[in-house]
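Hi all, posting the design record for the shared folder.

TITLE: backbone redesign
STEP: 1 of 1
STRUCTURE INPUT:
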């Protein structure tokens, strides 16, 4: 079966009413059949476009929205790390996240904060390192020291 991100494309296409749940389920089934037949796994979006369920432009929009959501989540966590460790003010992080949503393509939060002088390069690097450490910890691990 497709990856979580791959299936997310299908859910977003259904939410936008561009395709029905049944057509997404059919595409997932096709993907699974092809994989069982030893064919290289294709993405759900590619199957939906090939079958005429989505236009290439719709798929591009879904992929852009998905990338933007992932970037926003990562940068929101980075912003929280910066604020929690006293490396940036909450108002500055909030402004930079709002600015990021207006940009096409969006720039990274750290880049925006650095450009405005709201965070130092060393502070940004320390927060990114702390965030990376936290993301690799297991859920049951005790919390480690801050940055």
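Okay, here is what came back for every position:
SEQUENCE:
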């Amino acid at each position: 079966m497709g990856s979580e991100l791959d299936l997310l494309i299908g859910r977003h296409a259904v939410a936008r009413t561009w395709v029905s749940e049944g057509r997404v389920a059919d595409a997932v089934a096709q993907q699974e059949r092809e994989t069982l037949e030893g064919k290289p796994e294709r993405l759900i979006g590619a199957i939906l476009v090939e079958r005429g369920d989505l236009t290439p432009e719709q798929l591009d929009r879904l992929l852009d929205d998905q990338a933007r959501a992932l970037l926003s989540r990562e940068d929101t966590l980075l912003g929280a790390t910066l604020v929690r460790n006293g490396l940036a003010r909450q108002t500055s992080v909030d402004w930079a996240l709002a600015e990021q949503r207006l940009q096409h393509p969006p720039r990274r939060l750290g880049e925006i904060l650095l450009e405005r002088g709201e965070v130092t390069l060393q502070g940004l690097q320390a927060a990114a390192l702390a965030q990376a450490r936290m993301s690799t910890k297991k859920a049951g691990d005790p919390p480690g020291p801050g940055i």
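COMMENT: The two ends are 39 Å apart (CA to CA).
Let me know if anyone wants the other runs.
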